[in-house]
Amino acid sequence: MAKTAELKGGSFTLSALHLVDGDITKAADFLKQKVEQAPNFFAAAPVVIDISQADSSIDFALLQQSVKHAGMIPVGISGCKDVDKQQEAKDAGFAIMNAARQAKAAEPVMQPTKIIRTPVRSGQQIYAKNCDLVVMNHVSAGAEIIADGCIHIYGTLRGRAIAGANGQQNATIFCQNLQSELVSIAGNYWLSDKIQDEFWGKNVVVSLAENNLNIEHMAL
């Protein structure tokens, strides 16, 4: 009998919204602002809502509707240990994604570096799965380069660079000319307006320290 479908494990990058005080309206306004700032990256992107710091009363149906209205797609709830609240979230259409209940994934086997010699043009996406990515050319605005490991760009970066896409916090972005729409490491990101003028258009290294992005000039 021919197979009609297969269910396999996969690895995907999800943004996480931390609902700090339970204010759904304020959180939705924050998401809407991010979507407006970088629609190519955030519009219709899946998001998980961490409610571990929120108060005990959450209107999950309103949360689901508000996130959708902001322009993103709510897929799950994390940080919820209360069984009754989990059921409320499920009834509203959320998946329960508590990390404590998930089996620890095996460390991926890193593969040889992926090398791109041609320009990465607007609308193009390149993903280096379980390896570093080297781009020996320019990355245009509207383009996206993603790597589970480090990213090296020997040209101008005008698009989006996402390193450590599978959660590797020691991933690094090396860029010869930083003019990026977005840089991200292990889910932590900066849009262009967060990049200081002293690093704009310069040869830089982007790394992660204590869950905060750090940019410094690359020593030549």
UniProtKB/TrEMBL annotation:
UniProt GO BP:
cell morphogenesis; division septum assembly; regulation of cell division; regulation of cell septum assembly
Q: Record keywords: Transmembrane helix included?
A: no
Every copy of the Septum formation inhibitor MinC C-terminal domain together lies at: 115-216
State the source organism's domain of life.
Bacteria
SUPFAM superfamilies given for it? Cell-division inhibitor MinC, C-terminal domain
Domain Septum formation inhibitor MinC N-terminal residue range list: 6-74
List keywords of the entry alphabetically: Cell cycle, Cell division, Septation
Q: What InterPro entries does the record point to? A: CAP/MinC_C, MinC, MinC_C_sf, MinC_N, Septum_form_inhib_MinC_C
Q: What does this protein do?
A: Cell division inhibitor that blocks the formation of polar Z ring septums. Rapidly oscillates between the poles of the cell to destabilize FtsZ filaments that have formed before they mature into polar Z rings. Prevents FtsZ polymerization.
Subunit field text: Interacts with MinD and FtsZ.
Q: Which family, according to the similarity comment? A: Belongs to the MinC family.
What's this protein's name?
A: Probable septum site-determining protein MinC
Q: What species does this protein belong to?
A: Photobacterium sanctipauli
- Source taxonomy lineage? Bacteria, Pseudomonadati, Pseudomonadota, Gammaproteobacteria, Vibrionales
